[in-house]
Batch of 2 targets.
Target 1
Amino acid sequence: MCSCGSKQADDARDFDPPIMGWSSWNYFHTEISEEVICGQADALISTGLADAGYKYVNIDDGFTDGRGEDGRIRIDTTKFPNGMKAVADYVHSLGLKAGMYSDAGDNTCASRDVNPYGLNVGLYGHEVEDCKMMFDEWGYDFFKVDNCGGRHLDLDEKTQFTKIAEALAQCDNKNINFNVCRWVFPGTWVREIADSWRTTHDIWVDWGSVKTIIKENMYLVAYCGEGHYNDLDMLEIGMGFPPEVERTHMACWCIQSSPLVVGCDLYKMPDYSIEFLKNADLIAMDQDRLGIAAPVVQKEGEVYVFAKDMEQFYGPKRAVVVSNLSDEPATINVSLAAIGFQGTVQVYDCFQHLDRHDLSRSEYFTVKLDPHDSGAFFVTGERIEKSVYQGEEAFLNAYTEINDQDYEVYRRPYEIPSPRYWESPSADLGLYATKLGGWEENWLEWQHVYSMEGGDYVMSIRYACADKRNMSLSVNGKDVHEFVGLDSRGELDWSEIDVKISLKKGWNKIRLSNPEAPMPSIDRMSLKKFE
Ligand code: GLA
């Protein structure tokens, strides 16, 4: 399961990369069988996808047939005549890994649709026995746990998913990769128990679905790291999208270090889809040893530039994806300062697999994109210190989407208001953090602020509030300033306030908090070396 490493460690990686593989759900839904699963496992080998890194063969919903009086899950033997162990054994015989599926509550999502709440195949009340059966007896390696039954029973997600993680920890099999499928960002607790977690609705073959998932994950970068990943959902590549959408789909999943789980029928993929899936440069971006996600660093209209370090923190190489999420062709001058460089850079094109001498220049390089298309690059050159940290890339300690965004779905009382990331054209890069403060746990922290030399800085905080508000600033756990009676020009009428702080050489944590009363909304903070 989860193994935590140090973000600052630049030696060998001590955590697993996001998983890569195939899953039965997107194409086959519940129409699965031993023949389908083993056939797709064969295809992972014959297409060369396994050699490219796609090793997991994940069985999703649809293999059960209720629960017997002995308490054990019954397998649908018309679909799986030899049982589930035989399938895992076959997958393992090919040198691949096998994935299982269940639900936190009483029913899986499809069993609910087939026979409303009648099948009782979920984990609730059977956590330890089911886990031992799936992972010790049958020998599976991956576990996706859904929440339709959890919702039906109105279970507290944190409590129930933690119980499932504890059941997994009781298995003799110690290499189970655990995925929480809860359709919104569940809460910061999920990092403690899972290797990855879904962040949105189910993906489908529709540009709007892909775009929504990309946009949602723009403000979840702080929660990815040290072997724990936002799961942008299975890949719809090979399911009928045109090449430009598949380029965006693959590039955005990879720069965010999402699990890469192919969802199509592997026997029916267009050639260009196989090529995108096997793109070794993008796979390297996804599986990079730093295991981090990329914030937006530049935005013009609906063209977004994402950038993250690769191979080494503050090393010479960065991954950069430029995505045109609009419905019009677009041209953007990618600012070298925004992506973290100065001087002249070398630009390598991950789709064309060549050095782009035409883009290798100083100040900016120009990218032209068709609607819904993306460029993906490795940029190498002289690094500059990151000086702007957005509110939307900050870690919000109390962040969860369960009580807020999901309120409509749950129709249950709104409990404690949780902090949010919010969109506004008035905010730098279009997003800001809000509903902060008011209780002990509700703080904001930039957890990876890097200073090349250490020393004194002027920190400017861009904030807004409609009434007078206070907040405390701490650097590396030490209180350094109290802001009292901050300007109150209006919810989205941003002000900037400066404070002098000292940073140590290397990584620093900068926190804004107010346990007693609401804080202002935070758009961003910027740092300038104090001369
Ligand atoms: C939910 C999940 C999907 C899939 C189905 C199976 O909708 O989000 O990924 O597992 O259940 O029923």
Target 2
Amino acid sequence: MAEKGKLIVISGPSGVGKSTVINGVMREYPNLHFSVSATTRPIRPGETDGVNYFFVSRERFDEMLANGELLEHVEYVSNCYGTPEAPLQASLDAGEDILLDIEPVGALNVRRKRPDATLIFLAPPSLRSLRERLVGRGDTAPELIEDRLARARWELEQAEKYDYIVINDEVTNAVGEILSILRGEPNAEHCRAALRSAILKEET
Ligand code: ADP
Ligand code: 5GP
């Protein structure tokens, strides 16, 4: 029987660079598969249904929830997001590593249900740089940016509950650190949340 795959969770505030860094990681680590979440939020320019998310109605989302199809779910800034469990389990059973890009409430729920999961928090170098990236991405309305920053402050406080913290100063550094965590390399130990959470508090 194939060895089971690893379940990797990456969280971090909206705009910190998760999609950018995840794309970089997936290019270098072919056995990694992305878990496509369901969401009720509107599709953004450049996104594809079934690739970035399954964009569903609120009724369909509630049906998935009632049928027990979601490993975890959350309501985040007025929209619902959830992780479909069946495709994730199929990947793990086939020996594929699977990556979830989910916010901290969901991440900590995954940890409760799947204690073997590896939790990585992607942090911005500062709150100011986070605001600049959110504005620079150009797809979030100004009033939503304030909502997302308020949420980010709370999310950063959750980082110490993760296994690892990676600071996304330069994309290539962040990608490199995540690859060393996935490959179990000794220098991944520098990213342990127990070591880095103090630095994060000083810098943000
Ligand atoms: P998220 O998926 O976390 O919401 P994105 O990957 O969409 O974030 O990145 C938000 C914006 O920040 C994008 O415009 C992206 O190009 C930019 N960005 C990502 N990483 C960095 C970085 N290390 N330095 C500067 N800008 C970055
Ligand atoms: P965005 O709308 O910017 O794509 O995502 C908003 C937030 O929702 C991000 O922090 C992202 O990680 C999180 N998210 C995406 N999918 C899921 C999911 O299935 N579950 C949870 N808990 N969070 C998710």
